[in-house]
């Protein structure tokens, strides 16, 4: 369901207001409908009570009164005197309406012996149908009461205390009146246009600069460049936020620049004496001691290179270039094959991505090197996983204890206690590979490979990169 919901702040707020307004108008419509139903019901009961109370005791069976007068004809259709209860076999008394009518008649001082109220189709009432036929035959049909042979009517029969006859009153039941609710619909439309439209205009002043600021934050997170900063716009709060963000970007950029300068100076100042040491150890006569000293210098130099690379990965100087990933992976695997290492290129799918090839080679070398150092027979494959490219490096070996997998991504963390290059290096390879993956908007994950019995049979490293 989330796919159909708006993702932007503007869309979500407008949807919330629209739903709240719809709920309010629906409740208003329901209350209006119930009030209308109650008003109509009260009108029907009052009409029946008025006819039963105001009966002039004219005996229409003997013709007394002006039978030709339209009003007399209308009254003939509304009221009747009978000797038996007006209920027809199969009809049911409407107790709720009867109780309300009884209360009205009692308030008028009428002593009630018996009272029935029920709804009946007009076509089943012989008295009304005969009256309508008689009125039409005399060519002076007056149907202001709205009798419809296809409709229904409400009938009330009253037998007063001490009388033999029943006084029967009838009123037609009105049909549905959709026009009464057209005002609610029109009101809802007007409210939507005025309220939602006005709110959309106001929210646009907030969300437009906010969206621009979000884009700017994403761009700065990728490039760390302060060019293209936003001009403050929108309400005062948004202007202050944009201004503060621009100032923060400038400070961050200045700190990063100072860091690069400092790292460059450190690298230069350390590599120079290391180069001098390489020359001086040539004068050492003991070959074994000289080799150990040279290995230590080389170890320091590689550690220094890793540290400087890790520091610079966040601000790469080389641009992204469209690169065929499977070809790049194959070239790295070939390097190890040429050196005699047991590295296998598995299934590969051709995919072109925007990459920094030098950095990506570094990440792949670190991951394959770890597999060779701690495991055996790494298999490197490239595949497509939805909208991502996936580079998998699987090896056979002891794996990593489950509780230590996340810690292995941290700088200077190794599976071996020693920092000797022969047993694992300085512990920056995985950290650098993860930083390179994040530099490309991707992720690096490690997981143990398990057999059917749950035994660890190796490690798998997955480098997931987004496709363009």
Automatic annotation (TrEMBL):
Name the enzyme's class.
Answer: transferase
Q: Which residues form the HAMP domain?
A: 204-257
Keyword terms, alphabetized: ATP-binding, Cell membrane, Kinase, Membrane, Nucleotide-binding, Phosphoprotein, Transferase, Transmembrane, Transmembrane helix
Q: One Pfam family this chain carries?
A: HATPase_c
Task: Write out the transmembrane intervals.
Answer: 184-203
The UniProt catalytic activity note for this protein reads: ATP + protein L-histidine = ADP + protein N-phospho-L-histidine
Instruction: Tell me what topology the record assigns in the membrane.
Output: Multi-pass membrane protein
List, for all copies, the residue spans of the domain called Histidine kinase: 265-468
The reply to whether Cell cycle figures as a keyword in the UniProt entry is: no
Specify the species. Alteraurantiacibacter aestuarii
Q: Which residues form a coiled coil?
A: none
GO CC annotation:
plasma membrane
Q: Which GO terms describe its molecular function?
A: ATP binding; phosphorelay sensor kinase activity
User: Where is this protein chiefly located?
Assistant: membrane
| Subcellular compartments | Cell membrane
Q: What is its EC number?
A: 2.7.13.3
Question: Matching SMART domains, A to Z?
Answer: HATPase_c, HisKA
Name of the protein described by the UniProt record = histidine kinase
């Amino acid at each position: 369901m989330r796919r159909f919901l708006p993702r932007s702040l503007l869309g979500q707020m407008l949807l919330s207001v629209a739903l709240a307004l719809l709920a309010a108008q629906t409740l208003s419509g329901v209350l209006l409908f119930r009030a209308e139903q109650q008003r109509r019901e009260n009108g029907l009961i009052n009409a029946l009570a008025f006819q039963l109370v105001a009966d002039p005791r004219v005996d229409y069976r003997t013709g007394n009164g002006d039978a030709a007068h339209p009003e007399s004809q209308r009254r003939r259709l509304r009221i009747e005197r009978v000797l038996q209860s007006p209920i027809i076999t199969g009809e049911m008394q409407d107790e709720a309406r009867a109780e309300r009518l009884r209360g009205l008649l009692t308030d008028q001082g009428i002593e009630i012996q018996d009272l029935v109220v029920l709804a009946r189709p007009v076509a089943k009432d012989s008295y009304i149908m005969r009256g309508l036929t008689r009125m039409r035959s005399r060519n002076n049909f007056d149907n202001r009461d709205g009798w419809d042979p296809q409709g229904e009517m409400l009938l009330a029969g009253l037998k007063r205390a001490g009388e033999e006859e029943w006084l029967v009153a009838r009123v037609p039941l009105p049909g549905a009146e959709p026009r009464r609710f057209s005002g609610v619909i029109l009101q809802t439309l007007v409210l939507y246009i005025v309220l939602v439209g006005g709110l959309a205009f106001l929210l646009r002043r907030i969300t437009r600069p906010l969206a621009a600021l979000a884009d700017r934050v994403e761009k700065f997170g990728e490039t760390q460049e302060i060019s293209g900063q936003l001009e403050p716009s929108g309400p005062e709060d948004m202007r202050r936020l944009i201004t503060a963000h621009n100032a923060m970007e400038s400070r961050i950029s200045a700190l990063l620049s100072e860091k690069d300068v400092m790292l460059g100076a450190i690298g230069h100042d350390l590599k120079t004496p290391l180069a001098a040491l390489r020359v001086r150890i040539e004068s050492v006569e003991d070959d074994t001691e000289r080799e150990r000293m040279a290995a230590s210098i080389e170890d320091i130099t590689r550690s220094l290179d890793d540290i400087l690379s890790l520091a610079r990965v966040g601000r790469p100087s080389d641009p992204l270039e469209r690169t065929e990933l499977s070809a790049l992976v194959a070239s790295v695997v070939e390097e190890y094959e040429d050196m005699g290492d047991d590295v296998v290129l598995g299934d590969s799918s051709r995919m072109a991505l925007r990459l920094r090839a030098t950095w990506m080679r570094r990440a792949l070398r670190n991951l394959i090197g770890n597999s060779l150092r701690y495991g055996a027979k790494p298999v490197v494959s490239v595949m497509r996983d939805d909208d991502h490219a996936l580079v998998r490096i699987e090896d056979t070996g002891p794996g990593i204890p489950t509780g230590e997998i996340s810690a292995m991504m941290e700088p200077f963390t190794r599976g071996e206690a020693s920092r000797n290059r022969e047993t694992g290096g300085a512990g920056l390879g995985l950290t650098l590979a993860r930083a390179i993956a994040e530099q490309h908007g991707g992720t690096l994950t490690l997981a143990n490979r398990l057999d059917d019995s749950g035994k660890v049979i190796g490690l798998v490293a997955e480098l997931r990169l987004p496709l363009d």
